[in-house]
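Open question from group meeting: does this chain pack into something compact, or does most of it stay loose? Before anyone orders reagents, we agreed to write out a predicted structure and look at it together. Recording both the input and the output here so the notebook holds the full record.
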Amino acid sequence: MTDLSINKGTCGAHRLSVAPMMDWTDRHCRHFHRLMTRRAMLYTEMVTAPAIVHGPADRLLRFGDAEHPIALQLGGSDPVELAAAVRIARPFGYDEINLNIGCPSDRVQSGCFGAVLMERPALVAQCVSAILAETDVPVTVKCRIGVDDQDPEIVLPAFIETVAGAGVAHFIIHARKAWLQGLSPKENREIPPLDYPLVLRMKQQFRELTICVNGGIATLAQARVLLDQGVDGVMIGRAAYHDPASVLIGADAFWGDDAGPDAFGVAALMRPYIVSHLEQGGRLHQITRHMLGLFHGRPGARAYRRMLSEGATRDGAGLSVFDAAVGQVPTLACPA
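Structure tokens returned:
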């Protein structure tokens, strides 16, 4: 099983992290990912400050000890409300608090947070100052290089300078603009061109800060190249979800550690977690929907996905459905 003594604390975890992704990186997903990497930083889905202050905090913030190191990503633009949310979250024991200044969705814009705040760096500085006053763990900011018609060469360094002046020493930069008008959130993840050189220049300009890059990174080899070019860390998003074994098994080599279990080992380690979830009244699909890509690219992967997609949502679906799906994947490739 995972060695929790290694997980607790950040220990340079920013070298590789899995991006916060709405509807994806819930606690079941993070438990699954943690079985493949003991070192990488994991993030919650974005949780809005109003939801924490006025909603079911335990359901929104609870996580398992095995998930460390783990960061809470917050959305919001009211310093008072953000401070209140951090006070509520503090007893849960997150290793980092991250403020979302990158999400371009209409819902986020209407609430005046996310990427739209790239246009209001002074307000972001007030927000992070309020957060810092309520926590003793690192506070980080995830942002874009700019929005709409902004010139990133001008806007991004000014944004970093202003927010760093409020006490933030760690920025995760999605190396694309966000177009708040005319592109959907999905299109904003794919259409605006990537500008890794700009992020690298930000590291050269702000050497005292931790600068990490996000956007379009799909393999550990790509991550290694960017680290070698000088950024402090790399954040991987969709690839870590759709092909987790390729991206996360072996990731601990960035810290000089051995790889975790192979895909079949991960599946075996998930069995007691699934059993516990089912015994508590949970549904199989709530966990296995995050595991559809575990055997990506292997013989039998299509049958595995189909069996889980169709079987796990049925009433009463149990561990036997999961075991049967895994059984569709040969443990050894047939000889030529």
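Observations to bring back to the group:
The chain has 17 helices and nine strands.
Confidence is low (pLDDT under 50) at residues 1-9.
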